[in-house]
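Q: Please design a sequence for this.
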């Protein structure tokens, strides 16, 4: 039978599923495609694969609705009009790492795992081989065009993803000078923290916010809780930042961060932890006090928008990845939800006609959503079927919806009985298959979500380095002649 619209039964045409979707498609069909962006904000959820998005959206929905429903929820950026799938492999790895993937996003070319914005010709960990192979990044191009630039991360600001935007290094682990090898010192490679702070005034970052104080402080300095700086050259790079740049400020806790006068500050450095910032789940426990990703994003926009030429802001939610490596889904999901909040804040405080907002990940994780839980089943809970009964495996024991293919939660020998375990506790580690000390990245595609001028360039299945070209094109950064 061939149906026409008049023949649709009301159980179909009056259904909210039907009406809402029809309205949505009609509104999108009328969209105007503008392609030139004054400002670009790029959000990267480290390790935020598609299964993480699905689980985070349900988790957020259940927080709002009191642990029921959730499937119908959307993360803020999932409502953006343009989406692409992104291939993440490195030139030498089928399943990538964050250094190689962020190099692709920041420079427009893929490179090896472990290297930061140097070409594939360089050897990892070899300074000499990187000479002459340094790549120009989006930050370099934006600064050369007179835009303001900012980098924000909840990881150490010298960690792979943020570092690839402002540093060139054949080794992601060269975060402080004490990490450099003898060969690197002999051939005059500089550590990542040094490269961030010692940029020329006309190529300086206007905003750098994250964790990782230790790479900026001398090893003679004690930095709370008996953590010492990691620099053996005696330099205090937080001091150098303030001296190097005009109207510069350095803050290390939330109180000082909140007190920053954006009108009189042109270069803001904030380092809120000796190493990575806290997970969102634990942020309230931090002694010194840390701003949230949303607060860091909002303050960055406020400062960067002072430049009439526009700005490029790169924001990483760095610890979704770390929680997954620990086999700990709750912290990963809470950080993904906080990224969604930060994107929402950016969207609401910028003009959609002049700001392109992109949201992506660098790579996925071996994280799965399994079984046949009934709709509204707690996403962190044990699987209960449509009949409401606890589902069991062949071993007669219950299992969680969320799990990992490998990692520290792996079952060796007999599987634990989870019947009386609180699987929604923030410290619960999901069960996994292959025992590994650290759960691994996954090789399947991740997603790119876009709104604003140039957003229509995000479509289809693309190589990760295309993201550079979307920004370059939309913001006319001059990185190519096209
Ligand atoms: Zn990772």
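A: Design:
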């Amino acid at each position: 039978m061939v149906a026409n619209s008049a023949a649709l039964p009301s159980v179909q045409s009056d259904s909210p599923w039907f009406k809402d979707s029809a309205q949505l498609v009609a509104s999108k069909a009328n969209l105007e495609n503008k392609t030139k962006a004054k400002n670009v904000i790029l959000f990267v959820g480290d390790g935020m694969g598609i299964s993480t998005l699905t689980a985070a959206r349900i988790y957020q929905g259940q927080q709002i609705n009191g642990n029921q429903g959730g499937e119908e929820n959307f993360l803020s950026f999932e409502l953006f009009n343009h989406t692409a799938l992104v291939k993440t492999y490195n030139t030498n790895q089928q399943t990538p790492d964050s250094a190689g993937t962020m190099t692709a996003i920041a420079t427009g070319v893929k490179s090896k795992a472990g290297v930061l914005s140097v070409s594939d010709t360089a050897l990892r960990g070899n300074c000499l081989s990187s000479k002459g192979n340094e790549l120009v990044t989006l930050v370099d191009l934006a600064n050369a065009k007179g835009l303001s630039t900012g980098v924000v991360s909840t990881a150490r600001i010298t960690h792979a993803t943020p570092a690839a935007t402002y540093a060139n290094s054949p080794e992601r682990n060269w975060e402080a000078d004490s990490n450099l090898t003898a060969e690197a010192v002999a051939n005059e490679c500089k550590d990542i923290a040094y490269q961030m702070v010692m940029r020329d005034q006309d190529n300086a970052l206007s905003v750098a916010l994250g964790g990782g104080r230790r790479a900026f402080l001398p090893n003679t300095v004690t930095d709370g809780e008996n953590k010492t700086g990691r620099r053996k050259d005696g330099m205090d790079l937080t001091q150098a930042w303030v001296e190097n740049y005009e109207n510069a400020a350095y803050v290390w806790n939330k109180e000082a961060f909140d007190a920053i006068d954006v009108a009189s500050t042109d270069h803001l450095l904030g380092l809120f932890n000796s190493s990575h910032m806290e997970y969102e789940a634990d942020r309230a426990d931090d002694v010194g006090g840390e701003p949230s990703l949303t607060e860091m994003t909002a303050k960055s926009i406020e400062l960067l928008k002072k430049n009439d030429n526009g700005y490029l802001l790169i924001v990483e939610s760095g610890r979704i990845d770390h929680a997954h490596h620990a086999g700990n889904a709750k912290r990963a999901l809470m950080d993904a939800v906080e990224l969604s909040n930060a994107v929402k804040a950016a969207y609401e405080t910028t003009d959609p006609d002049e700001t392109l907002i992109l949201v992506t990940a660098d790579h996925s994780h071996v994280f799965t959503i399994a079984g046949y839980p009934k709709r509204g089943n707690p996403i962190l809970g044990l699987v209960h079927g449509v009949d409401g009964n606890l589902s069991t495996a062949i071993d007669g024991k219950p299992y969680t919806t969320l799990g990992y293919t490998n990692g520290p939660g792996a079952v060796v020998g007999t599987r634990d009985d989870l019947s009386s375990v609180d699987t929604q506790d923030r410290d619960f580690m999901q069960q996994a298959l292959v025992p590994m000390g650290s759960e691994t990245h996954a090789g399947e595609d991740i997603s790119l979500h876009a709104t604003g001028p140039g957003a229509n360039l995000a479509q289809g299945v693309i190589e990760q380095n295309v993201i550079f070209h979307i920004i370059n094109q939309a913001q006319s950064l001059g990185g190519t002649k096209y």
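Q: Thanks. Anything notable?
A: The two ends are 51 Å apart (CA to CA). The chain has two domains: 37-366+447-474, 375-439.
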